[in-house]
């Protein structure tokens, strides 16, 4: 904030204002292009506003106890229809051995848990056919015209792309990130011979990927590690909503989802799926609020065994801990009396329902898509990966 008397002089030197003016002049900047269009909102009867965590909590607590129990039953039923679609796929691709074995530039930051996550993301892209591993070494990829470009959404410092370039010979890199970072991978990437790097400091909501001239008609893979809340939906819409002859050619995508409690109805990619499952807009907001229970330090992390919870095999836990209790007069009391394990299980189920809608939307847009647990929960409880590749005889 700036004092009223200082406002005029501040505007003249404000770096954020200069950045916004420069951004608005870029051909790929289109305000709100990936936010969800008004026609879609009107069709679903939605208003265009952000629902805060406090508003979501108040929405849940304003329910009657009976309505709350009915919503839990609805969540259980919906989850039963999708739970078998999520498989374990913890991969350590041979192509990434130079990172696994720490045979990299010592100036690059190395945290084993992040390297394992990044390697499995790339391994799942390779498994689905969106990436090709070189037979001998990365240098052979330099002569391969079939090597796709990479667009990393929510790139942060860009170390997922750094591994891609080191291990798969990617030569064209686009890093999409709205924040400014120090000590990022850009310096190392720019030292690579023939590698073209473009960092776009822009909100994913405003990025028209089709207007990036150097990417037009170019095959690419889209990646994102822990794309928080609605950022996953914005990225999917950015890649798949507007396909034409000059569009970049999406060969595959791998997005590790997280922070589902931040998801918003206005930006969620597959409202039709949610409504088709009998879940209303308000109930969707309740689902997003429940997801915080899955990884909340006040709940799951303090309960022995929650870290490795297997939702598919949790029926015994559910049968032994029923939510309904007619002696409780308010939903707030019901929630406070739920066992931490029960809340954690419910939170994970809600996260998977939200991700299932995303996976089905991607499939509807012509890609072979699936959800996998790409790393053990002991490394990160946020271990769901949406991975998709172009349909082919091999994948069909």
From TrEMBL:
<comment type="function">
    <text>tRNA methylase which 2'-O-methylates cytidine(4) in tRNA(Pro) and tRNA(Gly)(GCC), and adenosine(4) in tRNA(His).</text>
</comment>
<keyword id="KW-0479">Metal-binding</keyword>
<keyword id="KW-0819">tRNA processing</keyword>
<keyword id="KW-0808">Transferase</keyword>
<protein>
    <recommendedName>
        <fullName>tRNA:m(4)X modification enzyme TRM13</fullName>
        <ecNumber>2.1.1.225</ecNumber>
    </recommendedName>
</protein>
<keyword id="KW-0949">S-adenosyl-L-methionine</keyword>
<dbReference type="InterPro" id="IPR029063">
    <property type="entry name" value="SAM-dependent_MTases_sf"/>
</dbReference>
<keyword id="KW-0863">Zinc-finger</keyword>
<dbReference type="InterPro" id="IPR007871">
    <property type="entry name" value="Methyltransferase_TRM13"/>
</dbReference>
<comment type="similarity">
    <text>Belongs to the methyltransferase TRM13 family.</text>
</comment>
<feature type="domain" description="Methyltransferase TRM13">
    <location>
        <begin position="117"/>
        <end position="388"/>
    </location>
</feature>
<keyword id="KW-0862">Zinc</keyword>
<dbReference type="Pfam" id="PF05206">
    <property type="entry name" value="TRM13"/>
</dbReference>
<dbReference type="InterPro" id="IPR039044">
    <property type="entry name" value="Trm13"/>
</dbReference>
<keyword id="KW-0489">Methyltransferase</keyword>
